[in-house]
Amino acid sequence: xxxxxxxxxxxxxxxxxxxxxxxxxxxxxxxxxxxxxxxxxxxxxxxxxxxxxxxxxxxxxxxxxxxxxxxxxxxxx
Length: 77
What we know:
Layout: H1 2-30, E1 35-39, E2 45-49, H2 53-75
Antiparallel strand pairs: 1-2
C-alpha cells in the first residue's frame, strides 16, 4: 500500500509539473515583445524595443529599403 501511495504522489507531482511548464510556455509565447538589436563595426550594440520611437524610425527605413529592393528586382526581370 505504501508503494501505491508513493506512485500516486509521484504521478501527481509529474502532472503538476507538466501543467506548470505548459502554462509558463503559453504565457511567454502570448506576450512577446519585439526587440531589434543592431551591432556596429566597433563592437558596440543598441537594443530597441518594438514600442519605442527609435525602433519605429528604423522600421520605417527598413520598409523603404525593402520597397526599393523589390522594385529594382522586378525591373530586372
